[in-house]
């Protein structure tokens, strides 16, 4: 298979005119050439933080605080989840997964509520789709064993030492929310030596030092932080210290569109368009240990093709800026997963 157009090549996402050669699902070459195509070829997105279980509760709870919305066990989200049937939950997740897939997302790193059963539900919801979520179980060690790792709510919600150790023994991924509403839970989260932190809106200098020294990646979710009113993550400071990836967080609060997340990140944060597109692709792949997220030989060929001649994108002077700050679902021409 050959995919032609302006290719955003390698980690640097350098725009080159040419073609991507794919054999047996892997990129074997990225060739510069004159091609007759206005398409833009880039890595499919890695949405590095989601909760799609609350797809049953889109736009519920206007005006509620962060705790009232999502804090376990009795936040609005958890009450609505308890009321929903198994079939309703599966169907709602399935539709969110399908939307992510059609909007160019190869995977999402899902913090899955509901223990072992929650992990089973998302597996059922994903059946037959091409998107391949990284599922992090919550609440029990058994959920982690059935999943790709453990996704902890936050250090103030409980003692995660046992789950952390069990996850390490299995060689799986351990992520934890930290620093969402204040800085108090960042040190205890870092004490667990997590594979990544989520949010980090309120780090103090000592936390930034620890994040850098420990090489701990951070997943930021700026739109979620706006909706819950906790502030804006310091994307510049974080990106200067560590790997920063991008996630859309709860479907209840935001559409799981990486185009929308990228636009907000680029316009809210002091980070370049190139950095934001890295956050949405290769950095997320690095965090989750995935073999895609980058258009270079040897990688799995999970690609997004945009119509660079759409009414929205035609005439753009800077391809990377246009993809990050302007492109949307309507510009998607093909998603190759
Ligand atoms: Zn979250």
Automatic annotation (TrEMBL):
Q: Where is the Amidohydrolase-related domain?
A: 40-141, 194-311
PANTHER family of this UniProt entry?
A: AMINOHYDROLASE SSNA-RELATED, CHLOROHYDROLASE FAMILY PROTEIN
An MF annotation (GO) of this entry: hydrolase activity, acting on carbon-nitrogen (but not peptide) bonds
This chain belongs to the protein called: Cytosine/adenosine deaminase
């Amino acid at each position: 298979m050959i995919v032609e157009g302006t290719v955003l090549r390698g980690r640097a996402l350098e725009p080159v005119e040419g073609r991507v050669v794919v054999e047996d699902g892997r990129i074997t070459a990225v060739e510069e050439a004159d091609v007759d195509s206005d398409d833009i070829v880039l890595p499919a997105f890695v949405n590095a933080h989601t909760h799609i279980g609350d797809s049953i509760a889109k736009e519920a709870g206007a005006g509620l605080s962060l705790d009232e919305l999502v804090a376990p066990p009795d936040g609005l989200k958890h009450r609505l989840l308890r009321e929903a049937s198994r079939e309703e939950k599966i169907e709602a997740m399935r539709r969110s997964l399908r939307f992510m897939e059609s909007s160019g997302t190869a995977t999402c790193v899902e913090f899955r509520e509901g223990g072992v059963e929650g992990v089973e539900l998302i597996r059922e919801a994903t059946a037959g789709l091409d998107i391949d979520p990284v599922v992090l179980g919550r609440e029990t060690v058994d959920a982690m064993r059935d999943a790709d790792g453990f996704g902890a709510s936050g250090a103030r919600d409980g003692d995660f030492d046992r789950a952390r150790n069990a996850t390490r023994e299995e060689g799986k991924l351990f992520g934890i929310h930290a620093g969402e509403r204040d800085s108090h839970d960042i040190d205890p989260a870092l004490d667990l030596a997590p594979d990544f932190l989520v949010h980090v809106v309120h780090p103090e200098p000592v936390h930034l030092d620890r994040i850098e020294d420990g090489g701990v990646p951070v997943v930021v979710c700026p739109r979620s932080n706006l909706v819950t009113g906790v502030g804006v993550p310091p994307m510049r400071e974080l990106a200067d210290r560590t790997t920063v990836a991008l996630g859309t967080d709860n479907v209840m609060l935001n559409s799981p569109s990486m185009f929308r997340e990228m636009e907000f990140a680029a316009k809210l944060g002091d980070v370049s368009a190139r950095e934001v597109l890295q956050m949405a692709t290769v950095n997320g792949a690095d965090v989750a240990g995935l073999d895609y997220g980058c258009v270079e030989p040897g990688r799995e060929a999970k690609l997004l093709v945009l119509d660079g001649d759409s009414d929205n994108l035609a005439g753009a002077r800077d391809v990377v800026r246009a993809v990050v700050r302007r492109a949307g679902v309507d510009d998607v021409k093909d998603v190759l997963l």
